[in-house]
Amino acid sequence: MASKDRLMMIRQQVEAERKVKVTELSRTYQVTEETIRRDLEKLEAEGFLTRTFGGAVLNRTTPQDNIHYYQRATIHSEEKKKIAASFYGIVRDKRTISIDSSTTVMEVVKLLKDQEMTVLSVSTEIFREIGDSNLKIISTGGSYNKKTLSLQGQVAKDTINRYHVDIALISCKGLDLEKGATDTNENETEVKKCMIHQAGEVALLADHTKFGKTAFAKLSALDDIDYLVTDEKPDDSWIKLCQKKGIQLIY
């Protein structure tokens, strides 16, 4: 079994059982206890669980909900770069885009710094990352969230509603076949909903760990998504759903 598949199954087991033991996981997945400990270390770094003596317990808070932007940027960084590279060929031809404050979307923006393009942004990190680029950046303003480095609230929503863009680039914390895209922060979710409404097209960027997960706040139905961009091929149920709904699946 590949490491990424084992991690996904361990994640699902922890979610279901709330508590796991290293010895039992070692027997279940037929790997050494040291390998399981390394797996648990990775999941702890994501904020998903807390390791205990001989095992681990599920964190009560939503994974990555309270993790600072710069720490989140180090989680699944290679997967985020893959997503950005896969989508670059499409988004580079757009003239106007809106972006959320996610670390995944920021990887796409980094690739666009030499393009003649207007970017409507709720991210404050964009100024540090690409402040000297060719991009024309319009900041929404709003209430500043120092953990997510994002702008929220009514001011941000009002600004977004003044513009129409070619495409909105958004992320999520959970992606479910029936429940659609969900997120953890209600304030950010409301801003993203405005972005979706004001965009000609919508691209949802989500790495493989988001599939099959449901977060607290409803973000979007899958009918609202034009592009689903991820880092690896999802299972057949997702492929069939994308074909049915006319979503362009990119991985």
Brief sketch in words of this structure:
The chain has 251 residues and is α/β, with parallel strands linked by helices.
Write a structural description:
This protein is an alpha/beta fold and 251 residues long. The protein is built from 10 helices and 15 strands. The strands form 4 sheets. It has a 7-stranded parallel sheet with strand order 6-5-4-9-12-14-15, sandwiched between helices. Strands 1-3-2 form a 3-stranded antiparallel sheet. A 3-stranded antiparallel sheet has the order 10-11-13, with helices on one face.
Features of this protein?
single chain; 251 residues; alpha/beta; seven-stranded parallel β-sheet; three-stranded antiparallel β-sheet; 10 helices; 24% strand
Rg is 19 Å
Q: Kindly estimate the percentage of residues that lie in beta strands according to DSSP.
A: 15-25%
CA distance, first residue to last residue: 21 Å
Our count of helices gives 10
Note the run of SSEs as H and E.
HEHHEEHHEHEHEEEHEEEHEEEHE
Tell me about the largest β-sheet.
Answer: 7 strands, parallel
Binned, the helix content reads 25-40%
Structural class: alpha/beta
The order of strands across the largest sheet is: 6-5-4-9-12-14-15
Low-pLDDT segments, ≥5 res: none
3D shape: globular
Q: For the residues shown, what is the average pLDDT?
A: 93
